[in-house]
């Protein structure tokens, strides 16, 4: 009973925060764009596979007529999960940006509304606000990922030639879990700087710069992946040159190269990992994401709890 | 029994080398309408921010209804209502939705009924279904006052409540403050730099100059001693000499 009463402000703040960001047009547009791209990813995967299958069937007719030996269907040799490999790119690009905006807006909406002083004079702890915003972010990201999962599940169910077994469905579920974790890192970054920055522009610019660094700059230093290659889910997993420099940077900076970590996890779970790929990072990719999400989450929650509540607005 | 609703001892707030509030020792009794007078930048808002738990003092103590604003801030907040200088609410929500949110956050039981009662008291029930974003400054201030008294606080802190209001808005708000004090017994702690506000609304006065309390008395005694509102102005200028000379 006591706990229920103590949690009442948190629950109230969570529902208020979610209702407020649901009314934000930028958040809605980015979320919609992400979901459209999820559909596109599913379509592209299906389309590419269908093309290969159609070519294979024609070749079979031709080779049968020629009396040649028929090779196995390459489509059936590939895991149906690889159909979704473009998802990994969309999550790390538009998904991460959407997460930053959601995290930022969770704080900015209150700051712009100027209601912080009114919130902070209610009988609740500062950390309650931080926890409420963090939980609201987790719910928003979970909703985004769940929508993506529903779309992709529907795709698999609609394509009879791609049957997933129990292990396949489990891997797909874990992929969505890891995608959510990856998006949370950026959502928490948005929340952190939404609370800590003095101006709204800076509050958005810093997380976006961090995202650019993690997605395009760090992979270049750790694995010699140029920015264009980083946009390709498969080429981004090419082996780094066997020089001492990349051996050291890959090992030492690899744990911070979250975009790479996410691609490695995606490749493992969606079965598109090149067979020759060697992971040289000091800690497992999943551990990198988990530590980053927990660490940035804790910092963001604390930043919200310690915000200057006297100010009604940015730069007020 | 301690009748002080607000009690500060040596309360100080420093920003680097600059002391915004210096060793403020002040007490406000239950039921008072206390006017905190001072020039812009005198430290009035900083004081209110400390008393409403928004800002941690550098040193000294402050009690609101016997609860320390630093060590018992949660308990202190149950006793306070706060209306900032520029009341800001969620513009995309109706007045009722805003009030419902703040009432629930304050732990008000049966919030819908309390909102109706509060809006009736403030004579603005017709505002309930309207979006706050469409409100004038005066109407916004009225809903701001509503959110601050929903939980029937013991003490209401008002920071320059009439700032930016037209004469009619000022009169309406002034009447509401007086009624609130009389009907609910709410202690009022009001920041202002308008002497007319003090003479027409307050029962006691404190003057802050460059972060220091330079005058404190009841309006009754001040009027007895100095007479009319213009004399109150002279008193104010005489106890705030540095700023007055600077301004002149």
UniProtKB/TrEMBL annotation, chain A:
One of its GO terms (cellular component) is plasma membrane. Keywords: Membrane, Transmembrane, Transmembrane helix. The chain crosses the membrane at residues 27-46, 87-108, 129-154, 174-195, 202-221, 281-301. GO terms for molecular function: ABC-type transporter activity. It comes from the Bacteria. This is ABC transporter permease. It comes from Devosia riboflavina.
TrEMBL record, chain B:
It comes from the Bacteria. Keywords: ATP-binding, Nucleotide-binding, Transport. The keyword Transport applies. Residues 6-235 form the ABC transporter domain. InterPro entries: AAA+_ATPase, ABC_transporter-like_ATP-bd, P-loop_NTPase. PROSITE patterns: ABC_TRANSPORTER_2. The keyword Cytoplasm does not apply. GO terms for molecular function: ATP binding; ATP hydrolysis activity. Belongs to the ABC transporter superfamily. This is ABC transporter ATP-binding protein.
């Amino acid at each position: 009973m006591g706990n229920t009463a103590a949690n009442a402000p948190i629950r109230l703040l969570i529902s208020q925060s979610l209702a407020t960001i649901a009314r934000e047009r930028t958040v809605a547009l980015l979320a919609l764009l992400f979901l459209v791209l999820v559909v596109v990813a599913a379509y592209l995967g299906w389309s590419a596979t269908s093309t290969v299958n159609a070519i294979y069937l024609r070749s079979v007719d031709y080779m049968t007529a020629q009396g040649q030996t028929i090779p196995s269907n390459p489509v059936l040799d590939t895991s149906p999960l690889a159909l979704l490999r473009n998802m990994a790119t969309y999550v790390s690009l538009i998904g991460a940006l959407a997460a930053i905006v959601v995290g930022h807006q969770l704080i900015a909406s209150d700051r712009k509304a100027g209601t912080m002083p009114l919130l902070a004079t209610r009988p609740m702890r500062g950390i309650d606000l931080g926890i409420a915003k963090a939980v609201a972010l987790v719910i928003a990201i979970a909703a985004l990922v769940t929508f993506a999962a529903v779309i992709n599940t529907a795709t698999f169910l609609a394509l009879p030639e791609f049957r997933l077994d129990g292990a396949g469905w489990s891997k797909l579920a874990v992929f969505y879990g890891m995608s959510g974790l990856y998006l949370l890192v950026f959502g928490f970054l948005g929340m952190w700087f939404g609370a800590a920055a003095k101006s709204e522009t800076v509050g958005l610019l810093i997380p976006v710069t961090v995202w650019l660094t993690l997605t395009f700059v760090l992979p270049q230093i750790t694995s010699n992946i140029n920015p264009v290659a980083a946009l390709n889910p498969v080429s981004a997993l090419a082996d780094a040159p066997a020089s001492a420099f990349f051996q050291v940077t890959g090992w030492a900076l690899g744990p911070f190269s979250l975009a790479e970590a996410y691609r490695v996890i995606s490749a493992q779970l969606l079965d598109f990992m090149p067979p020759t790929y060697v992971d040289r990072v000091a800690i497992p990719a999943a551990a990198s994401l988990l530590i980053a999400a927990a660490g940035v989450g804790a910092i963001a929650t604390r930043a919200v709890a310690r915000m200057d509540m006297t100010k009604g607005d940015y730069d007020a | 029994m301690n009748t002080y609703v607000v009690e500060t001892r040596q309360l100080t707030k420093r920003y680097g080398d600059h002391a915004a509030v210096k060793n403020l020792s002040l007490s406000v009794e239950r039921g008072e309408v206390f006017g905190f007078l001072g020039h812009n930048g005198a430290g009035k808002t900083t004081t209110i921010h400390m008393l409403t738990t928004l800002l941690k003092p550098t040193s000294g103590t402050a009690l609101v209804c016997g609860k320390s604003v630093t060590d018992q801030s949660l308990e202190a907040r149950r006793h306070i209502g706060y209306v900032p200088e520029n009341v800001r609410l969620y513009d995309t929500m109706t007045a009722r939705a805003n009030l419902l949110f703040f009432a629930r956050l304050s732990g008000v039981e049966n919030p819908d009924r309390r909102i109706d009662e509060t809006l009736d008291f403030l004579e603005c029930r017709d505002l309930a279904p309207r979006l706050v974003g469409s409100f004038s400054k005066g109407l916004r201030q009225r809903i701001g006052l509503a959110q601050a008294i929903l939980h029937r606080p013991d003490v209401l802190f008002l920071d320059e409540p009439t700032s930016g209001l037209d004469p009619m808005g000022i009169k309406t708000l002034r009447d509401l403050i007086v009624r609130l004090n009389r009907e609910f017994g709410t202690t009022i702690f009001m920041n202002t730099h308008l002497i007319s506000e003090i003479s027409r609304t307050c029962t006691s006065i404190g003057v802050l100059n460059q972060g220091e309390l330079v005058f404190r008395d009841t309006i009754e005694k001040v009027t007895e001693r100095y007479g009319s509102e213009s004399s109150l102005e002279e008193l104010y200028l005489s106890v705030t000499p540095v700023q007055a000379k600077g301004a002149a």
